[in-house]
Amino acid sequence: MDSGKIDFSALSGEGVSWTLLGTLYLRAWENRLPHPILGDRYAAEALERIDYDFAPLKRRLRPNGNQFLVALRARQLDDWCTGFLTRHPAATVLHLGCGLDSRMLRLDPQGTLHWFDLDVPTVIGLRRRLYPEQGHYRLVGASVTDDGWLDQIPADRPVLIVAEGLFPYLTATEVQRLLRRLTDHFPTGELLFDGLAPWTARMGRLFRWGVRDGHDVERMNPRLTLAEQVPITEHRDRIPLRRYRLLYDLMNTVPALRNASADYRFTF
Ligand SMILES: C[S@@+](CC[C@H](N)C(=O)[O-])C[C@H]1O[C@@H](n2cnc3c(N)ncnc32)[C@H](O)[C@@H]1O
Fold it and tell me: Do 189 and 268 meet the contact criterion of CB atoms below 8 Å apart?
């Protein structure tokens, strides 16, 4: 691993790639608690390595509860990953829109799996300095909407596809096309992602796709079967601070807020 500070000015501006710093920051913040939900110490370590002024981001994100949205979302996806990788220790993992997420370190999977972390080339250039390729761990710098990159991912094993914080930034047509390419390429596997309700997606400047219900995705791609759909507030009992647990209890009682964001698991 490169030990110097990493210059993140390439991510300046307000584009989609910049959002990875928000999720990284919130995971590091959540890790400060004595009993965190996710406990992502790698996020905290990565922040130390990044040369970037986080003060404006901190003012904007105000980690006053949204760190638990990010932690609950990631924890659910991690739990599903663990389940799949226990059943298929020699799988291929394809992690789309990985940003600086440390999922492969958090899960520390044993066995002979092949892990591919993909993001746009600028992000992969930065990520490479924090988490270099080694063994069966590979980095792919491409847009998920590009043709071609899938050809380098072997399709001879069950695949676990994880896309966290990615699909809301794609259009419905891009999501549909990507899902079709994925299910055409891999004979069998699982697809995990988080989605925003259409009304939530309309609130963000950068968001372009919202999903009402997992069955909408089955209609988009009949090869996918919805296995689980878990609202972000579902496991609010994991929140270690009482005042935020109560806030999430309240959110959970309002159907629109309960369904504002969910994690999805599909099989194919
Ligand atoms: C909100 S961040 C989430 C990053 C990471 N999954 C996490 O949870 O910290 C969104 C990520 O999606 C990536 N992204 C957005 N559009 C993309 C595309 N078309 N192809 C590949 N990655 C994309 C961004 O570069 C960024 O890293």
Answer: yes
